[in-house]
Amino acid sequence: MLLKKFLTVVLTLSVVQVTPAVATRPNDLQRDADRITAVGVTGVLARATSPSGHSRTAVSGVATLDRPARPRADGYFRIGSTNKTLVATVVLQLVGEGRMGLDDTVERWLPGYVRGHGNDGRLITVRQLLQHTAGIYDGNFPGIDTAEQYYERRYDVRTEEELVQAGLSHAPDFAPGTGWQYSNTGYNLVGLVIKAVTGRRWYDEVERRIVRPLGLRHTYWPGSAARIADPHAHGYTRFAAGEPYIDTTELVDADASGGYISTIADLDTFQRALFGGRLLRPAQLREMTRTIAVGGSAAELWPGARYGLGIFSRDLACGGTVWIPSGDQIGYRTRLAVTGDGRRSAVVSMSTQLYDSIDVVFAQDNAARTLLDRAICSS
């Protein structure tokens, strides 16, 4: 799940326009990782994979501010809204199997569930939920915008059903299909649709359809556990300028909008498999990559950004399009990038969220984008 302290952190800010030079030296990945820590990030894990399948990794910073140990490249972290790409992949597999349709209404699978305050499941399709065009209000759970709120709410547990009902207690942002607005509530509703179709929870379907077939041995759903498996870099958040770094590693937040924990290697394997045709049939991959322009304030903040089904796209610095199954979670920011053929890819995990100012937010994301673009353009 993405935070809403700034709208600029709700989506993937790595689409801010910068034009990095193409890397040509083996140590460029390390240099670019170091440039991310230079803006105030405590720890960075980076990985880049070429068309030959050769991977390079780099780490920078520290695993914890308590001692000077470097973070480990095989460390775990919260993947945030990269989870949405997993969920969308499950739905598209079900579509390919003929078990449901993208243009099915929510009402078909959850009769009478979406009602009230102007919300109507008879008018909302699964496609709209996946593409953030359903208009469903996006709640701010767990609503952590200060250190005090973190300490008070970090162990709170809420089910997808509770989160959906919280969103449905508000009027929609717009009529279904008439706008674009990022909605974690919408993806929690998709999780309930998956259960209605399969009889299993969304995370069980992710496990049996993606995690196990791809051999992602370091990817897991934490449930109500607040801790992250070892090894891991601690996640830190600076909630405002002049405030100290707060260790926000421990958190219960494992819903369908952003619940999984993984590693840079496993996420790289996933995105390459997805665009390499190992998870979706061609027709369903085409549906995933049918994009629309992001709308509202997002269009001003991310000029040129587009959104498919569970995934962003943007222009690559050296030409062409790159796909971005990225996300944020308290204490962690994850950026992925993969070319449409699945042959060039990169991942960066940053174990810090900086809310000092909008300029600092942009600086962190621009540094991450530079790393991703150099890594892909030079491979």
From TrEMBL:
InterPro entries: AmpC-like (IPR050491), Beta-lactam-related (IPR001466), Beta-lactam/transpept-like (IPR012338). Residues 1-23 form the signal peptide. The keyword RNA-binding does not apply. The keyword Lipoprotein does not apply. It comes from the Bacteria. One of its GO terms (molecular function) is serine-type D-Ala-D-Ala carboxypeptidase activity. Residues 58-355 form the Beta-lactamase-related domain. SUPFAM superfamilies: beta-lactamase/transpeptidase-like (SSF56601). It is an enzyme of class 3 (hydrolase). Keywords: Carboxypeptidase, Hydrolase, Protease, Signal. Its EC number is 3.4.16.4. This is D-alanyl-D-alanine carboxypeptidase.
